[in-house]
Amino acid sequence: MKIQFESGTVNYLDQGAGPAVLLIHAFPLNHTMWQPQLATLTSRFRVIAPDVRGFGESGPPSPWTMEEMANNMAEFLDRLRISESAVVGLSMGGYISLPYYSQYPQRVRQLVLADTRARADTETEKAARTDMIAALEQGGIAILPGRMIPRLLQPDPSPDVVRLVREMIETTGVSAAIHAVAAMRDRADSSTLLRRLQCPALVIAGQNDLITNIEESRAMAESIPGGRFVGISKAGHLSNLENPEEFNRALAEFLL
Ligand code: MLT
Description:
The chain is 45% helix and 18% strand. The protein has helices at 35-42, 66-79, 92-103, 123-139, 144-152, 159-170, 174-185, 191-195, 214-223, 239-242, 244-255, and strands at residues 2-5, 8-15, 20-24, 46-50, 85-90, 108-114, 201-206, 228-232. Strand 7 (201-206), helix 9 and strand 8 (228-232) form a beta-alpha-beta unit. Residues 26-27, 91-92, 184, 211, 237 line the site of D-malate.
C-alpha cells in the first residue's frame, strides 16, 4: 500500500487487527525484513511496517535526518488515523524510534529497541560512515553486500538468511543508501532520553551482534526506568531474521 506525502511516497504493510504496532526496519533493508514476525503479531495486533524514505518502494530518495523521519512517521500514522502505537525499531529503526519518542511520547504505548544504540556515533564511526559514502559514490550499491553482510549476520550465517538480506540490499538504490548513511552519521545523542522514558521498554540484542555490542544494549536497558533486556542466542545484528523464534517470543511476551 502507498500514501503520497509532500516529502514523497510511503510504501507500507498494514496487516492484522488490534492495537497498532509500528515496525521500523534496519539499514540497508526494507519492511520485508519483518516477514518472520508477521504471523506472531498479526493475530493480535494491527502491524504497520513502512519502508523508510528511498528504501523498498518508498521514495524518492532525498536527504533526511532522524528527527525529520520521526516527524514523517507521525504524519504517516496520522493518515492511518493511528494516534498511539507500540514502536519496534531495529538498528536504524531504533535511531528513528528514539527521536519519535522524544517528540511524541504520548503516542508511544510501548517501545522496543532492538540491536540499536541511543548514543551518537564516535568520531571513528563517523569517519567510517564518510568512507562508506565515498565508496558508494564510486562503486555503487554493488559494494554494500560485501561490506554489510559480514557485519549484519552472525559468523557462519544461514544461507537462506544471507540470500534474503543480499536481495534486500541489492534492490536498494545507491542514493537512498548514501542519504541513510549520512543520517546515521549525523544523528544526535539520545542517551539521556533513556532515563526519561515513561513507557514500558524492552531492549533486544543478538548475542553475536557485531554492530551493537550486547553489553552496551544491556546497559541501555539498565538506564531505562523499569527497562527490560532480552539477549537472542544464535543471532547477530539482524536478530529478528536469524532467530525469529526467540525474537518473537520476547516481542510477544512484552507486547501482550
Ligand atoms: C542498521 O543495521 O540499521 C545499521 O547497520 C546500523 C548502523 O550502521 O549503525
